[in-house]
Specification:
Length: about 325
């Protein structure tokens, strides 16, 4: 068999040469860095949140006056929607980001990450704040698919304010993701001011116009013309007609809902006192769902403020360069 010591030395040389070749191939030829994957995953989550928010609000503002005001959506249909899937992936990405951050700490400086002790843990913290934003998008999505929906002509009262706040919030989230992607810091004061001003307008409109909606529901005979003209509300007759149609559809749906066994609406007699109380409660809940949606959108804006702080801290720790022209 020859000299065993010589054989052992040759074997050690073979192992060392194989290890060196493997390292060179993984570093130079086909590199796969955990830090790069963490960076790309976080940027992708930013764009997913912005896209999901836009799709959710767009679906809520769609004209569905031709359809029933009470929408029943199965759990499977809700979970199969692209918006819900994107948010679910973001919510489940926490453990993945932590694993990538731990692996990235052991990697040598490479590519765009040439700093020693690069703040990979701050990437995870930014991802956590982004998850809270995704939670709010899921809440908005649940309101869109709720069984009880307010009529479209009452939803459209807030359309301009909601659309303005949506555009500013989605644009700011994309700017934050683009800054991380390019590893550059850009001033956001003007975007933040526009976002806050649009949110304040939405809140004022929500308080004033929501009060008007409730007033128009119970005091139809005495409308406030000056109020409607000042805040550009829909025509009073259209609101009344929509409310009457909505009340009628709600009563019919409620009859089917509380009947056992299931019967047609014509098989019922006049509504009793108990049914009327339930219908009134259902109508109030439908109107409150509109305020719930706008409040959830305002809450999303509040969470974006925390997201801005986390990204600014990351840009400072990672020493992002100023954007071009600064």
């Amino acid at each position: 068999m020859g000299n065993p010591i010589r054989t052992m030395i040759d074997r050690l040389y073979s192992i060392a040469i194989g290890g060196i070749i493997s390292v060179l191939v993984n570093v130079s030829v086909f590199p796969k860095w955990a830090g790069d994957n963490l960076h790309k995953e976080l940027v992708k989550n930013f764009h997913s949140v912005a896209d999901s928010l836009e799709e959710c609000v767009k679906k809520y503002l769609e004209d569905e006056s031709e359809k029933s005001t009470i929408i029943t959506t199965s759990t499977n249909e809700f979970s199969n929607e692209p918006t819900y899937k994107r948010c679910q992936n973001i919510l489940n990405s926490g453990s993945k980001l932590e694993t990538l951050a731990k692996s990235a700490k052991w990697e040598p400086p490479h590519g765009r990450f040439m700093h020693f002790s690069y703040p990979w843990s701050q990437y995870v913290k930014v991802g956590v704040v982004l998850q809270y934003c995704a939670y709010e998008v899921v809440a908005l999505q649940s309101i869109v698919h709720a069984e009880i929906q307010v009529p479209y002509k009452l939803r459209v009262v807030f359309q301009s304010e909601i659309q303005e706040a949506l555009n500013e919030a989605a644009e700011l989230v994309r700017i934050l993701g683009r800054d991380i992607s390019c590893m550059k810091w850009s001033p956001k004061n003007s975007h933040i001011k526009r976002l806050h001003s649009s949110t304040k307008r939405l809140q004022r409109s929500m308080y004033l116009q929501y009060y008007y909606i409730l007033t128009s529901t119970f005091e139809i005979d005495n409308p406030s013309k000056s109020f409607a003209h000042t805040y550009h509300l829909p025509d009073q007759r259209e609101v009344v007609e929509q409310l009457e149609c909505y009340h009628e559809i709600t009563r019919k749906q409620l009859k089917r809902l509380y009947s056992w066994p299931s019967r047609e609406v014509d098989a019922f007699e006049e509504d009793g006192e108990k049914s009327i109380k339930i219908v009134d409660s259902l109508e109030s809940t439908a109107i409150l769902s509109l305020a719930n949606f706008t409040s959830s959108l305002v809450e999303f804006v509040a969470r974006v403020d925390h997201l801005i702080e986390a990204v600014d801290k990351l840009s400072t720790m990672a020493k992002f360069k100023p954007a071009d022209g600064l």
